[in-house]
Every structure is written in C-alpha cells, then in structure tokens.
Design brief:
The chain is 18% helix and 35% strand. By secondary structure, it is α+β, with helices and mostly antiparallel strands. The chain has one domain (6-136). Strands 1, 2, 3, 4, 5, 6 and 7 form a 7-stranded mixed beta sheet that branches. Strand 3 (52-57) and strand 4 (60-74) form a beta hairpin. The radius of gyration is 15 Å and the shape is globular.
C-alpha cells in the first residue's frame, strides 16, 4: 500500500470555511465537491491512500476535505485538467500559518495541522502581523 500524502492549496474567493462549504453546496448539492486544477498530481496513489486537500484561508490552514478520487476535465479551451473530487464535509483544523504560493503543493502528514476536537468549529485566528512574523522566523 502507498504511503499517504496530502495536498495544500490557497482558497481564493472564500472568506472562510463556511463560505467555501456554502459555495460548494450551492454548486454540487449534498454530494462530493470538486476543485479543478491544471496539473495532474504525479503522486496520485499516495493521495488516494487517505489524503486530503488542506485549504489555506487568508494566510492560515483552517480545514481539509478528504480526497475521494481524481477525474479528467477538459476546459472550454480544450486543455485537459484534473478535478480533485472531495468529500462534501470539511474537517476544521488548528490554525496553521502559511505563506502565499501558487497552485497546490504536496503536504506530508507530519506537517499537517491537527484536526480540532469534536464540537469546536474554529480556532480564533491569529492577527495578520503575528502570522507574518511567525512566517519570517520559520514557524510558517
């Protein structure tokens, strides 16, 4: 069996986890959601061995959604893309600061933030200047 691996991606256009889930629900209903990306992950087997897509909102990881499968999508421009098919529910995580980046990145399980305990739907976000300072000294 392949080792497990995650993806991490900036969530552009959503203010927070609830906003992302509302958008996904409006678009995909109660079933799996999807996020289309240009590049197909080369480490597909590891991602599908229990991996998740971790979402970064305004400089901090706050949630993840389990990856169910990858599917091909062809855009109106004819370019073949990868649809990340996601579980409809998102698990909230402890806030983990992240610098901006483009596209998605692989995320090792040891580097992923811990899930929040049942019943807690959020952590208080850290002030932006503190997140930036932590990033500068290597605390992400």
């Amino acid at each position: 069996m392949a080792d497990m691996l995650h993806l991490i991606k900036l969530c552009v256009g959503a203010e927070g986890v609830d906003d992302l889930l509302a958008w996904q629900h409006a678009r995909f209903g109660d079933g799996p959601a999807e996020h289309v990306t240009r590049m197909w992950p080369r480490r597909e087997a590891e991602l599908l061995a229990g991996g998740s897509l971790y979402w970064v909102f305004k400089g901090a990881v706050l949630a993840h959604q389990r990856l169910l499968r990858l599917e091909e999508r062809r855009g109106a421009d004819g370019i073949l893309r990868c649809a990340l098919i996601l579980a409809p529910e998102a698990l909230r995580t402890e806030a983990q600061p992240r610098r901006p980046f483009q596209g998605w990145r692989y995320l090792m399980p040891a580097d992923a933030p811990r899930d929040l305990p049942q019943g807690r739907d959020h952590t208080d976000p850290l002030p932006r200047d503190l997140l930036d300072a932590m990033s500068v000294i290597g605390l992400r």
